[in-house]
Amino acid sequence: MRSWVRMTPQLRGALALTGLLMLPLAPAAQAETAPTQNDEGSSLMQRGAELFWEGLRQEMAPALDDLQALADEFGPSLQGFLSEMGPALAEIAGKVEDWSVYERPEILSNGDIIMRRKPETSPDEAPDTIPEGQQDEGLPEGTTDL
């Protein structure tokens, strides 16, 4: 077998010098590819997280299947309800400024749903004041009982 490059003494010297100069770089290149102790810890953490999420998914699968069956059962009727009642509910929501001033909705025996307004407190019955009969007479004027 004949080589097309002729090895001259100068070429041999240059190749040997290049090899000697690259020799200290070999462990650094190997360190980049070989996993270190820290990398193994990271991969163990990653594997642990994957196992955790896989276990969680397996535990949740029956509940998610039940939820899917429930959605399949009630989905069409809910879509019909929202298409009919959605605009009316949006109108009511636009008129109500503060939901906290209303009592909990009640369903009457005839099926009507009512929302009563909470009774307004008069300035005389402010929650900060103590009724006359309950004031502590033993405290001097202007003190606060904590």
Structure write-up:
The protein is built from three helices and two strands, in the order αααββ. By secondary structure, the chain is an all-alpha fold. A two-stranded antiparallel sheet has the order 1-2. A hairpin with a 5-residue loop joins strand 1 and strand 2 (113-114). The N and C termini lie far apart (105 Å). The model has no long low-confidence stretch (mean pLDDT 76).
**Backbone shape:** elongated
Helix count, DSSP H or I runs of 4 or more residues: 3
List unreliable stretches of 5+ residues.
Answer: none
The rounded distance between the terminal residues' Cα atoms is 105 Å
Helix content: 55-70%
Using only CA atoms, what is the Rg?
40 Å
DSSP E strands, number? 2
Question: How do the helices and strands follow one another from N- to C-terminus?
Answer: HHHEE
For the biggest β-sheet, the strand order reads 1-2
Major beta sheet summary: 2 strands, antiparallel
Rounded average pLDDT? 76
Q: Which structural class matches the secondary elements? A: mainly alpha
Q: What share of the residues does DSSP label as strand, in percent? A: under 5%
Keywords: Signal
Region (Disordered): 114-146
Signal peptide: 1-31
Protein name: AAA+ family ATPase
Summary, kept brief:
With 146 residues, this protein is mainly alpha-helical. The protein is 56% helix and 3% strand. It is elongated and about 110 Å long.
